[in-house]
Description:
Layout: H1 11-38, H2 40-45, H3 61-71, H4 73-92, H5 97-112, H6 115-127, H7 133-148, E1 157-161, H8 163-168, H9 171-178, E2 182-186, H10 192-197, E3 209-214, H11 216-220, H12 227-230, H13 236-244, H14 248-253, H15 255-266, H16 268-271, H17 273-281, H18 295-307, H19 313-330, E4 336-341, H20 351-370, E5 375-377, H21 379-382, H22 399-415
Parallel strand pairs: 1-2, 1-3, 3-4, 4-5
Helix pairs in contact: 1-3, 1-4, 6-7, 9-22, 13-15, 13-19
Amino acid sequence: MNPNTPIKITAETERVWLRRYGWGLALLGVAVGLFVGAGWWSGVLLDRQWLPATWLQWVTRRGLVLGLGLALIPAIWRVCLAFDARYGGALRKFSVAPFLALVVVLGAESAFRLFRVQDVFWHSVIARAGEQFQAREVGLFRLDAASAQNGKHPSGYVVSGTSQLVYGLDVAELGRACGKPIYRRAVAGLFPVELTASQEFLTFDGDNMLVTMLSGFDLGARSDLTPAAMRPQATMRGMRNVFAASEPKFILRHWRDFVDLFSAASCDLWRSRDYIRFLIENPFSAYKSAHTQGEEIELATQRDAYREMGERTEMVDVALRSLDKFFEEVSGRVRKIVVFEGQVNPAYPAQERLAVMSAQMNKFLLKQQELGRITYITREQQGLDIPASEWRDMTHVTSDGRTRLTEMFVRQLCESP
């Protein structure tokens, strides 16, 4: 026999193989099932402490169910061969592949939306986040959102915003002081348009109070639509409001982005695709940055962004119109909306641009309060000016600043009548 001649595998070849070795495949399936079942959370969390301590503990109910399922593979294989022999010729006359592909996609999407799948998936992302802080924040956002939608939970505060709240607010202390659960929906880059897009993650219970913090910095932070930042939190109602807030020429210029984001809003697999890829790229260890960009280049990029804040007036208008539609709709879906006026480091560069954006945002929020949609707490009402010494950069506070900011939230939310 010529070794270069390919071996032709026929249905009869497969049947012979199954008769000889199918039992071994079944036993292997049981062993794999027991291994995966017992080491499940250890693999998900990358933590050996979850591994069984004794041989008996390797036998779990999950492992037995999975093992028996895998042991059925040879039998299913035989059934498929018999089905193909009897009906394959007739089916191949029709184009059933698109229909089967649709069934597979719909089945995968339905399975991915189950809480147990979401729980495992986002725990896996968080465990592998490592130096990728955005992955950890998005994972915590989506994990908490999935948990909140899984059954009834007591009413409390939904705290939503950017990394200023992620790092600036002690959520545990706020919940303890107020005696209510805190549902955190904060993630870096959740500026007005992104906040609007995430709407349905915030309105899961009409008895909750929505709390957020907005400033001129948030209004002018984006120079364009950012699908990568919006996609993981995109929802259908939110995207409709962003779309309705956009001028036709803006929509035409970003039509690909809107198709992408509406797809994410309707399909959770697409919405989570960046983090599905993240898990594929980091299956067995946490992410480590390659540090390809020097700190000086990164700081220079930040300084340029500070100076250009709000120069794209078109994007500022989209942000304001999006927020207007957001507050109008969400005010009827939660008990109350409380908006705190935000602040940045007093040493923030481009003070003139910041002052213009702050005045514009302040005027907008006061108008929203007049319309009865929000309760707006200005900096004067807060009685809090965080000094430059309590900022670790231009927009994020130190631990001392975090304590002061949390105390102010407690006073306004929990102690005020």
